[in-house]
Specification:
Layout (H helix, E strand, L loop, with lengths): L1 E5 L3 H12 L8 E6 L5 H8 L9 E6 L5 H9 L1 H6 L3 E6 L4 H10 L2 E4 L12 H9 L3 H13 L4 H20 L10 H10 L5 H20 L4 H12 L1
Parallel strand pairs: 1-4, 1-5, 2-3, 3-4
Helix pairs in contact: 6-7, 6-8, 8-9, 8-10, 10-11
Length: about 240
């Protein structure tokens, strides 16, 4: 059995998890909790893919474990096994992709969102997002990526913003000294400040990864949401 709780309202989301744990239906279950540092696929297998010899029942809490790529892959690849397992699985995440949300809604007994009010300090904009990526502000870029998901921004819009940033900075790194870029002076000034944050090889690899993701997603060989997350975590 599977329950999924997600959203930026961490306190309310955690309250929902605690309420489920305290439910009389699960009093006889042994509580097992994992986070992104302690969860490993081989450990999860023990609870979801093995039959207990003594009839033990487990209530397994996966708190933020999908931040670990190998655990995320295990969950999504073995979702049917987890749902059919005698163990009760509770996934609690701050953010999940649109594709993951639809998958969980189809398979979980309950998939519930706990989001903070829409009135946020700063809404997602392409410039705000690329500024954080350009400054290699991993935490800020991830927060803005979360904002984009909350605002239902299309993956194409996010990829377009990233590609524009990387193309612009790459152009400036190759520009001969004294040559005119033709860019807006403010854009050029900001972009030049990002040049110290990445090596030329890193810029090239980052840009190639974005292009490859775009084409692979069009072919249907990868999930564009998961690909974006992986790229941000890998290149920031």
């Amino acid at each position: 059995m599977l329950f999924v709780f997600y959203g930026t309202d961490t306190d309310t989301r955690q309250d929902a998890v605690r309420e489920l744990v305290d439910n009389d239906l699960y009093k006889a279950y042994e509580l097992i909790t994992f986070n992104d540092l302690t969860a490993k696929p081989e450990l999860l297998t023990q609870y979801f893919e093995s039959t207990s010899l003594f009839g033990e029942k487990y209530l397994v809490i996966l708190d933020g474990t999908m931040m670990a790529s190998e655990v995320k892959e295990y969950i999504l690849s073995n979702l049917e096994t987890i749902v059919d397992s005698p163990a009760v699985c509770v996934i609690s995440e701050e953010t999940i992709s649109a594709a993951e949300r639809e998958l969980f809604k189809k398979n979980a007994k309950l998939c519930a969102e706990y989001a903070l009010p829409k009135e946020r300090n700063q809404a997602w904009t392409p410039f705000a997002f690329t500024e954080r990526v350009g400054m290699r502000d991993k935490k800020g870029a991830w927060a803005m990526y979360t904002e984009a998901l909350l605002d239902d921004k299309s993956p194409d819009e996010i990829i377009g913003a990233l590609f524009w940033l990387l193309k612009t900075v790459s152009l400036l790194t190759k520009l001969p000294k004294g040559a005119v870029s033709g860019l807006n002076p403010y854009v050029e000034k900001k972009s030049r400040s990002y040049m110290t944050k990445y090596t030329n090889d890193e810029l090239f690899a980052f840009r190639q990864a974005i292009v490859q993701l775009y084409h692979d997603a069009r072919r249907g060989t990868v999930s564009i949401d998961e690909g974006l997350e992986a790229i941000l975590l890998a290149y920031m």
